[in-house]
Every structure is written in C-alpha cells, then in structure tokens.
Amino acid sequence: MNVFKISFAGLKLSLVACFVVFSTCLYAQAPKPERFEKEVKNFDRLDSLEQVRPGSNLFVGSSSVRLWKDIADYFPGAYVINRAFGGSTFADLLHYADRAIVPYQPAKIFIYEGDNDISFGVPTDTIFKQARTLRKKIAAAFPDVPVVFISAKPSISKWHLKDKYIELNKMLKKYASKEKLTAFADVWTPMLDKDGVVFQDIFLKDNLHMKAKGYLIWQKVLEPYLLKK
Questions:
Q1: What is the pTM of this model?
Q2: Residue 24 has pLDDT above 90, yes or no
Q3: CA nearest neighbour of 89 among 109, 110, 119, 68
C-alpha cells in the first residue's frame, strides 16, 4: 500500500511537471515582434503622406485600433494619429516603442493591448508587468505626457476567455488609478447588454473585429479623454 501511495504521488508529480512544461512551451511559441518589421517600416511612408507633427493624440496597439482607419473622423475636434499594428501584444509594442511612439512626440498616448496576449496564453501577471514596463518607458521619454490604457474589449470569438480579460482589466484599472498621468478607459462594460453578454451585432464576420457600430461605442467612451485642438 505504501509503495502504491508513493507511486501514485510520483505519477501526480509527473503529470503536473508535464503540464507545466507543456504550458511553458505554448507560451514560448508566441510570435516574435520581428514579424511586424515591414508594417512598422511603413510608418515612415504614412508620416510623409499625413504630414504628422508633434502634439497628437497617438493611438497604438493591436488590430482593433489598426482597423479603425477613419478614427480621425470620430474625433474631429482633436488631432489624432493611428500607429497601431497587426495582432500585436504588449511585448511587441515594447519592442517597437522607440519607433511607434517616441518619434511622434505625442501630447497624449492611447494604448490598446492585452487582447492578443491573452489569446496567446500569456499569464495576466506577465501582461500586467509588460504594461507597467511600457508605462515606465514612456515616462522616461515623456515625463509630462498622459497615457490612457484602453481596456481589453469583449468579443464573441473570445468570450470563453472573458474571465481572463476581466482579470487583466481590473489590474490595469487599479494601476492607472494610482499612477501619475495615467488613466483607464473602460470599453468592456458598454459593449455588454443588460444581461452582461457581449453585443452580437457590432462585429464583422470574424466575430472579433468591430463594425462602425462598435467603434461608436468606443468613441463615446474615449471622447472625454482626448486633448482637443
């Protein structure tokens, strides 16, 4: 019996060890930041076409912002630049901050990350640490520039991960409430119906990215945070 107990305990430890290794491997396979090199290089072309200047409301982050191509039309009273790229994560934005944020000398910075991070299986603690590191990097470059963390949004395709998103949003909100020149804009809550379920009619066919109807919700949330012309 004692031998059986020892063997069973050893089996449990082995299974736990295998699970940890498997989980670590999955996380280690998250895409590398260099996959966005071509897209970030394209910012130079956009800068020339748009004749960008210092003092913008700079939006950076993943595809929910990148696909908001007419974002400036939603905020006609503000100077807005969109330099979001692909399916990026906080780690990606950290990697490219010197090219996607610093050169623009913005007056205010809006960050939307965390959505893909959770999909890739990055632990919320790790995501949060990367968010803080990014905030510190921005503060070092622009001590007086405010930063707004846009909450991770809900979506139909990732609704099964909602608890992780809620957890991350709570962490970012708490952090923003204590950090100088830092705010948290909650787009999660207004994208839910009266039963607490994400709206079904605000997404494209992929059930992830938004139609104009979804961006109208974001417009209402973000408008008060923008610096006006």
A1: 0.87
A2: no
A3: 119
- Per DSSP, helices labelled H in the chain are 2-28, 37-50, 63-66, 71-74, 90-100, 115-119, 124-141, 162-178, 212-222
The answer to whether the CB of 178 falls within 8 A of the CB of 212 is no
Residues whose CB is less than 8 angstroms from the CB of residue 226 and which lie 6 or more positions away in sequence, other chains included: 57, 75, 77, 78, 80, 108
Contacts of 203 (CB under 8 A, 6+ apart): 155, 156, 209, 210, 211, 214
The two structure tokens encoding residue 191: 């994208």
Number of helices (H), then strands (E), belonging to the chain: the values are: 9, 5
Digit-coded pLDDT (tens) for 147-199: 999 999 999 999 999 999 999 999 999 999 999 999 999 999 999 999 999 99
Q: How far apart are CA 153 and CA 45, in angstroms?
A: 30
pLDDT digits (tens, 9 = 90+) for 203-217: 999 999 999 999 999
Unique residue bearing structure tokens 């939307």 = 112
Q: Cβ(190)–Cβ(217) under 8 Å?
A: yes
Q: Are 111 and 88 in contact (CB under 8 A)?
A: no
Buried b (16+ CB within 10 A) or exposed e, 144-182: ebbbbbbbbbbbeebeebbebbebbbebbbebbeebebb
* Cβ-proximal residues to 91 (8 Å cutoff; 6+ apart), any chain: 30, 33, 117, 122, 130
Query: Which residues are registered as beta bridge partners of 228?
Result: 78
> Which token pair is 138?
């921005």
